[in-house]
Amino acid sequence: MVVCGLACWRCRWLLPLLLGLAIIMGIIALAGRGWLESESEPYVHQASLWDSCTRSKQDLNWSCQSLMEYGWGRAAAATYLVGFVILVICFALAVIAFSIEILRFNFVRGIGGLLFVVAAFQIIGLVIYPVKFTEEIPLMGDNMFSWAYGFGWASTVVVIGCAFFFCCLPNWEDEVLGNIKPTYYYSSPERAPYLN
């Protein structure tokens, strides 16, 4: 005997868990110093969302310049940070929504809409940064956009995926709430005599 049907109500915490993962990746992106780094030795350049640091080949001390002195630097940081704050709000709303026994599906769809706003803000910040950085900051040696910048994009991709799931979840309201009866598929009587 095989039972077919969605057991989503038991898995309802997966979406808030994914949003929590996106928050962790966003924190790493905001705090990380690996938005841009020298690709190979000597490592003479590294940058975060907030500043750009360089050093000469002989000097071990980094000399840092704030990117907040540039309009594009403030814009990139502000858009990514606004998206991150809205993401934290969406996480709190998702925890509240899935904690209630009577799930309000219009509320869930609203969270999905907010997550699309988060993705838009984060994408704007993640596009402004490399375009304007390479135009206005003199680069030394071979450089690459590195791990912290990658965490920013990873957070954004998870947010986009969660946004689709939150928006589509009301379409399976009965399955999620367990309001439908499972469909049973039986084998032929010869193969399963105990069913008679």
Automatic annotation (TrEMBL):
Entry's localization field: Cell junction, Desmosome; Cell membrane; Cytoplasm
UniProt entry keywords in alphabetical sequence: Apoptosis, Cell adhesion, Cell junction, Cell membrane, Cytoplasm, Membrane, Transmembrane, Transmembrane helix
Annotated GO biological process: apoptotic process; cell-cell adhesion
Alphabetized Pfam families for the sequence: PMP22_Claudin
Recorded topology in the membrane: Multi-pass membrane protein
Cellular component annotations (GO), alphabetically ordered: cytoplasm; desmosome; plasma membrane
Residue stretches spanning the membrane: 12-32, 77-98, 110-131, 151-172
Family as reported in the entry's similarity comment: Belongs to the TMEM47 family.
PANTHER family found in the cross-reference section: P53 APOPTOSIS EFFECTOR RELATED TO PMP-22 (PTHR14399:SF4), P53-INDUCED PROTEIN RELATED (PTHR14399)
Protein name, UniProt field: p53 apoptosis effector related to PMP-22
